[in-house]
Amino acid sequence: MHAKSFLEDVSQTIDVPVKYVVITHWHWDHVFGLQSLPFHSIG
């Protein structure tokens, strides 16, 4: 799952909690699994 991998990478990179995700464009590989993330998305 892309979203799970993303969260694992982020948690290893920064020490502050993520509150938002900004979507720059609507390609499937940028939004796949977005609904499973535990924070708000902005697009």
Automatic annotation (TrEMBL):
InterPro entries found in the cross-reference section: Metallo-B-lactamas (IPR001279), RibonucZ/Hydroxyglut_hydro (IPR036866)
The Metallo-beta-lactamase domain, residue ranges: 17-40
Record Pfam families: Lactamase_B (PF00753)
Name of this chain's protein: Metallo-beta-lactamase domain-containing protein
Originating organism: Bacillus badius
Lineage: Bacteria, Bacillati, Bacillota, Bacilli, Bacillales
